[in-house]
Specification:
By secondary structure, the protein is mostly helical. It contains 4 helices and no strands.
């Protein structure tokens, strides 16, 4: 049984390390692009484009939230693995993604309002 648990943990670590190694490059490019868009926003179309990006980020955060809630359920159905409180961590991560989605949705609304005001 412990061999199975160790195998699952090892696979999850390899997957996580793969994502971690790619994330900084992608994140840096995204921040640079967003920074440029924000500093150059002057006309309604610019703000609409920013609103669309924030909508996309909100949608991605909601998808991640749903994934973590599904993982939480899976861990709760598998008590042998849940002894380490994986389900609690999944719940906490899901809450953070929900907060991120709400913030992104608020930013999208602000940029839509700015676009309307600039017309």
């Amino acid at each position: 049984m412990w061999k199975n648990i160790a195998a699952v943990v090892a696979v999850l670590m390899v997957i996580a390390l793969g994502f971690i190694s790619l994330r900084p490059v992608v994140a840096d490019e995204h921040v640079t692009h967003m920074e440029h868009m924000i500093t150059q926003a002057k006309v309604p179309a610019d703000h609409e484009a920013l609103a669309a990006l924030y909508d996309k980020e909100a949608q991605e955060a909601r998808q991640k939230q749903a994934e973590h809630l599904k993982m939480k359920e899976w861990y709760e159905k598998n008590p042998a693995l849940n002894k380490t409180r994986f389900s609690f961590h999944c719940q906490q991560i899901a809450l953070k993604y929900e907060e991120m989605a709400k913030e992104d949705e608020a930013l999208a609304k602000m940029h839509r309002d700015m676009a309307k005001a600039a017309k």
